[in-house]
Amino acid sequence: MEFLIEKWFNRKISLDRIEKYFKQLQIKKRKLSKDINPEDIRVSCVERQIYPVNSLEKYIDMLCGFVDQAAKENSRLIVFPEYNFFDLFGFIPGFSFINQILNKKAIKNKDKEKDRGIESHLKGNNYFLTAIFKGVAKPVEAGVKKIVSLLAKEYGIHIYTGSYILKEKEEIYNAGSLFGPDGNLIGTQKKMHLTDFEVKLGIKRGNKMEVYSLPFGKVVCPICMDATYFETFRIAREMGVDMVILPIANLEEYSTWKALRGIWPRVQESYLYGFKSSLNGWIAGMHFTGKAGIFAPLSMTEKKDGVLSLSPFYEGNHLITANINMKKLYEAREKAEYHEDKNAEFEKNFIEKTYNIN
After folding, report:
1. Across-strand partners of 46?
2. Taking the alpha carbons of 235, 239, 243, 245 in that order, is the dihedral positive or negative?
3. Which keywords does this Swiss-Prot/TrEMBL entry list (predicted)?
4. 244: enclosing H helix or E strand
């Protein structure tokens, strides 16, 4: 089945077709000044709803619409969410019908099952879903990278692809790529901390965080669950990072308090800028929620709440944009009285026990 799915998606996601369609779009190239003011950099994050498509052109139009809006707002960077390819499952014959049935059933049982609905949905479906993920991996990766590369070059903007399934030999990973305004690939980061859902599907974890140098600062690109653990951002900070890109797709009903286990506290602990994009909506009986947000240390925000921009609702389509100021970030770090306080002697035993260090 995996082979047949890959063959079908190779037909549906043609790189030549992508290039041909981009020529039809006739995107007006944006000319941005090469002189970047580190005290005035605009960034945008996408919150979007899953919408299964039956043509590659519709998917390109969707991505293009967000990038075009970000470009009009003079953003230097736009960030797409985790599992940014789910819409392409619409290429699977009969998917629309099956999707409707599964979603209706899940909505009907939502109140009864609550959080147990995720587990019940996965029972008996692991092999089927894993085969789909493995089958679509290579065609989707190639297609998404091609589309984002062309969008980045045409609009002269840095673009984070959102995450897709990366297949290396027989192993699959949840990964995302960053492209520069010249259309070239800057780098690809694998997700390092997996959810139960991903473990059941056989997704493997990455074990290294890459740092990328952009004209306006250093950035890392962990994915969703990676922000649940403070170590991710602590390590990024020690690596000299200024910004963290974090795509999410939370497979749960939205809760403000659950959302606070992620990027917002990590930004406050580490004195970094945080850019969160989010995927939402229903697909195959699964419900994803989450707000896009741009965050900074408390003292750097007008309301002293650590929020530079936040989408108004946890579902639907939104593009949020904010200005970041590197000079103010460095000043805030210097003024932070207790930031990065350490007591190595006191912490030694606890660190050894926590991380099983001999």
Report:
1. 319
2. negative
3. Hydrolase
4. strand 243-248
The Cα angle at residue 264 between residues 200 and 198, in degrees rounded to 5: 5
3-state DSSP helix/strand/coil % of the chain, to nearest 5: 45, 25, 35
In this structure, how many other beta carbons lie within 10 angstroms of the beta carbon of residue 284?
20
Q: Could you give the CA distance from residue 240 to residue 53 in angstroms, rounded to a whole number?
A: 41
Residue 110 CA, chain-centre distance (Å), reads: 26
Helix, strand or coil for residue 176?
Answer: strand
Whether 287 is in a domain gets the answer yes
SS3 state of residue 172: strand
Split into its structural domains, the chain has a count of: 1
Angstrom distance (rounded) from CA 150 to CA 63: 11
CA angle 260-265-271, nearest 5°? 155
Q: For 17-55, what is each residue's pLDDT tens digit?
A: 999 999 999 888 777 777 899 999 999 999 999 999 999
- The closest alpha carbon to 30, from 69, 88, 60, belongs to 69
Amino acid at 99: N
Name the residue range of residue 117's domain.
2-28+38-338
CATH number at residue 330: 3.60.110.10
Q: How confident is the model at residue 358 (pLDDT cuts 50, 70, 90)?
A: low
**Measured distance CA(181)–CA(160) in Å, rounded:** 11
Residues 324, 267 contacting (CB under 8 angstroms)? no
For 68-94, how does the pLDDT look when each residue is reduced to its tens digit (9 = 90+)? 999 999 999 999 999 999 999 999 999
Q: How far apart are CA 259 and CA 217, in angstroms?
A: 26
Asked if residue 42 belongs to a domain, the reply is yes
| 206 domain-assigned | yes
- Banded pLDDT at 120 (limits 50, 70, 90): very low
From residue 293, alpha-carbon distances to 47, 62, 108, 215, 217 in Å are 9, 20, 30, 22, 19
